[in-house]
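Methods — Computational structure assignment.
A single polypeptide chain was analysed. Its primary sequence is given first, followed by the predicted tertiary structure written as structure tokens.
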Amino acid sequence: MGRVYIPVLLFAAYQCAAQPRPGGDQFHASLLRGDLLQIADRQQRLESMTARAERNVTVYVSNDLNTRGVLYQAQERAAKMFAEARVRIDWHIGRPSVAQPEREPAIVVSLAENTPANFLPNALALAKVYEGVHITVFWDRIDQQTRIAPTAVVLAHVLVHEITHILQGIDRHSESGVMKSRWTPEDYRAMAGKPLPFTPLDLRLIHLGLAPLVDTGAMASANSALKTTN
């Protein structure tokens, strides 16, 4: 049963317990009302904690490269894009410490250079979707290729695309928007003006993915790559 109905049921049960009953045990009725109030309070606190967890994601960026300030611009743009999806990105530089709580797992993004031409040709990044942690962004390919959109804009969209793969926990793409598998010249022109949007399904899958994850077992080696147009 969906949690949206639980407060309604608790309220109805409370009202029933509060009704005077001829010859009834008012002492036990009072205890029942107290128990129901405690249950309602715990449910409210649980839903509040769940809502916060659904909207907060920690991302570490391991960057030893000189991006000339492009990375910081891209992070700001990416954060705004996720804010539209009710997801707050908490950016950090470096790698998570061993003290990083398991209940608050972090995504780790690495920027790579000197990417071999024969390694995932035309790909701009790679996310280990079912491992659920690591993303590699091929910075050299983003930086060196002439594009219609500014480099910071493209990098922001790459970050959003790959982080979304991790959040959703599945290897899939949309037919339009930021989660397309390949962006066309028209998409680059569009993102230069305003960010490419999430589709409604993208948003649903993001928040479903932020719920407690199931054991992915043998799928842990799968990954997803974002490619450019040919």
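Note: Residues 3-52 form one domain.
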